[in-house]
Amino acid sequence: MIPRRTLLSLLVGALSTTSLPAFAQQAPFDLGPEQPGRIRAEKDPAAIARVPNNYAFAEPGVLTVGISPGGPPLATYATDAKTVIGADPDFALLIAGSLGLKLNLVPVAWADWPLGLASGKYDAVISNVGVTEQRKEKFDFSTYRQGLHGFFVKADSRIAGIREPKDAAGLTIAVGGGTNQERILVEWSKQNVAAGLKPIELQLFDDEAARLVSLRSGRSDVIVQPHAQLVFIAARDKDIRRIGTLSAGWPLKSDVAIATRKGSGLVDALTLATNNLIANGKYGQALARWGLEEEALPRSETNPPGLPKY
User: Fold this and answer.
1) Cα 117 to Cα 58, 126, 145, 257, distances in angstroms
2) Measured by CB atoms within 10 angstroms of the end CB, which terminus of the chain is less buried, N or C?
3) Residue 302 DSSP SS3
4) Angle, to 10 degrees, between the axis of helix 208-216 and the axis of helix 4-18?
5) Are strands 255-261 and 139-146 parallel, antiparallel or unpaired?
6) Is 22 exposed, middle or buried (0-12, 13-18, 19+ CB in 10 A)?
7) pLDDT of residue 100
């Protein structure tokens, strides 16, 4: 007999695949290849001056950026199935413009970006890369977004908000098995029990579609997964809403950053360019295009403390 969870995942996965054309037509954000609403930056002389004179770009006059098109709104393929669009590509365009360079986005599998960056195939990776102490041994980082998980509920849910462990006491939460979110919520539940509160009931699912079915059918009170993914779904389907966010590195902060080769000297220019984009408002405008204002940073940092090994 096929386990109920597996059967549900297979059924929903099949339904999702057959509905892709409708999905493209109903998308809440512009998924066309032209991207007329992209925010663009002027040359930033201060940032340009920070680029080392001896730095050799992968292609002269071009900022070559590795990116993994994992899905909207961060990075995905446009409706032409070849142009990479999303919040990360938009930010890459801002950085390239600030440095007075053209942008070349190189689609890459997530597992392959470290080798490609280390070998000089591209100058930087802008692809939702979190800062960790282990990664800092080989790469430099300029932060540009918060790493967040999102708490979302049905649009008509009576749950007002979740900001700390006690707010989730007694709730049934759908989460991906073996994920960082599960690790955090297990700890939250332990804290609640120690404080005399009800535990959190975790429902573990293998895929997003199954988690959403559980939420929409009322079997789960809340769904938790990377914030940006749920922002897109909420805007598309209009039947779920955000009630809180959670640092992806809880209890520590977890920032997303531009990755560059360790010691290449490019990191200071990228951090300065990012901070100037924050100051002139273009950074916020670019995030707002994709509904990601909640993930904005007040300032970019070079090689901040990263997440430790777990």
Assistant:
1) 10, 11, 20, 14
2) N
3) strand
4) 100
5) antiparallel
6) exposed
7) 98
CA–CA gap between residue 220 and residue 174 (Å, rounded):
6
How far apart CA 143 and CA 230 sit, in angstroms, is 22
Burial class, 48, CB count within 10 angstroms (exposed 0-12 / middle 13-18 / buried 19+):
middle
Task: Give the span between the Cα atoms of 5 and 202, in whole angstroms.
Answer: 14
The per-residue pLDDT for range 127-142, each reduced to its tens digit, is: 999 999 999 999 999 9
Within the chain, residue ranges assigned H as helices are 4-18, 20-26, 45-50, 87-98, 113-118, 133-136, 180-194, 208-216, 227-237, 267-280, 282-288
Residue 32, both tokens: 């066309």
pLDDT digits (tens, 9 = 90+) for 251-294: 999 999 999 999 999 999 999 999 999 999 999 999 999 999 99
Per-residue confidence (pLDDT) for residue 212, from 0 to 100: 97
pTM listed for this prediction: 0.89
> What share of the chain in percent tops pLDDT 90?
89
Encode burial over 249-265: b for 16+ CB neighbours within 10 A, e otherwise: bbeebbbbbbbbbbebe
Cα distances (Å, whole numbers) of residue 188 to 45, 157, 210: 47, 22, 23
100 exposed, middle or buried (CB, 10 Å; 0-12, 13-18, 19+)? middle
